[in-house]
Amino acid sequence: MVGKYRRRRNVKIIFPSTITSFAMVFGFISIMLAANGDFVKASYMLMLSMVMDGLDGKVARMTNTASEFGIQYDSLSDLIAFGLAPAFIYARFVVHAQGIDRMYYLLPMMFMVCGAIRLARFNITASIYGKTHFTGLPIPAASFALILWPPLLNWAPQSEILTSLGVVEHLTLQNLFPYSIGLIVLLSWSMISTLKFDTPGGFWFHKFPKKWMNWAVIAAFLSLNIWFHFSFFCLAIATYYLLFMYARAFYERVIKQQAPPLEDEENTA
């Protein structure tokens, strides 16, 4: 009976591993698309890889095949899809396209190395049963925030709303380059930091005490996809998540620690 159970479990482990493999393959395809100058499709391919990355863990828990092997294999996939691929997109789309000093290639290299450190740390602290928060910004979230540049800058000139506001001419890669430096440095530092970042399920579905409030927030963000563009919707949810996490960390580490301790009324009586 034990041998029969093990054979069944070994068959089931194929499903999450296959999904993880697809996430890795999509990351490789993203690199090839970026190498050919198709940065928008490369970014969307990485988003598809993120969907696969989110599914493999759920499938592993549903099929009771979560294992140490799955954690290690998932991290190898993440390093390619969310470490190497977004760094390559940034290097080609931002640094190479502007023909600026080669020193700026250190930025995507830094992002990739910090992502590798983040994954290595995750491997020795991860649990197959999941967790409520992450220590350091997860590399898929960092990658998601970094690869929004190509689709956003491709959509901006076509937006009637942005055109009417007169901001389209300012939304160029040359003008936004200093902000991209700040973003990639912040994301790289966040991955290797000890800040707490909520899991997607905990953040989007359990952030507020009442369920209707959580669904109202989700519906509000989904409406951005209808009125604006998918890339703007992605920017909104990435900004909301990061600002919320940084604000909480600032409150807990600065405001809360500097607050004077409450006096014991019984001792002062």
TrEMBL record:
<keyword id="KW-0472">Membrane</keyword>
<dbReference type="Pfam" id="PF01066">
    <property type="entry name" value="CDP-OH_P_transf"/>
</dbReference>
<dbReference type="InterPro" id="IPR048254">
    <property type="entry name" value="CDP_ALCOHOL_P_TRANSF_CS"/>
</dbReference>
<keyword id="KW-0594">Phospholipid biosynthesis</keyword>
<feature type="transmembrane region" description="Helical">
    <location>
        <begin position="134"/>
        <end position="156"/>
    </location>
</feature>
<feature type="transmembrane region" description="Helical">
    <location>
        <begin position="103"/>
        <end position="122"/>
    </location>
</feature>
<feature type="transmembrane region" description="Helical">
    <location>
        <begin position="176"/>
        <end position="195"/>
    </location>
</feature>
<comment type="similarity">
    <text>Belongs to the CDP-alcohol phosphatidyltransferase class-I family.</text>
</comment>
<dbReference type="InterPro" id="IPR000462">
    <property type="entry name" value="CDP-OH_P_trans"/>
</dbReference>
<feature type="transmembrane region" description="Helical">
    <location>
        <begin position="12"/>
        <end position="33"/>
    </location>
</feature>
<dbReference type="GO" id="GO:0016020">
    <property type="term" value="C:membrane"/>
</dbReference>
<keyword id="KW-0443">Lipid metabolism</keyword>
<keyword id="KW-1133">Transmembrane helix</keyword>
<dbReference type="InterPro" id="IPR043130">
    <property type="entry name" value="CDP-OH_PTrfase_TM_dom"/>
</dbReference>
<feature type="transmembrane region" description="Helical">
    <location>
        <begin position="215"/>
        <end position="243"/>
    </location>
</feature>
<dbReference type="GO" id="GO:0008654">
    <property type="term" value="P:phospholipid biosynthetic process"/>
</dbReference>
<dbReference type="GO" id="GO:0003882">
    <property type="term" value="F:CDP-diacylglycerol-serine O-phosphatidyltransferase activity"/>
</dbReference>
<feature type="transmembrane region" description="Helical">
    <location>
        <begin position="76"/>
        <end position="97"/>
    </location>
</feature>
<dbReference type="InterPro" id="IPR004533">
    <property type="entry name" value="CDP-diaglyc--ser_O-PTrfase"/>
</dbReference>
<keyword id="KW-0812">Transmembrane</keyword>
<keyword id="KW-0808">Transferase</keyword>
<dbReference type="GO" id="GO:0012505">
    <property type="term" value="C:endomembrane system"/>
</dbReference>
<protein>
    <recommendedName>
        <fullName>CDP-diacylglycerol--serine O-phosphatidyltransferase</fullName>
        <ecNumber>2.7.8.8</ecNumber>
    </recommendedName>
</protein>
<keyword id="KW-0444">Lipid biosynthesis</keyword>
<keyword id="KW-1208">Phospholipid metabolism</keyword>
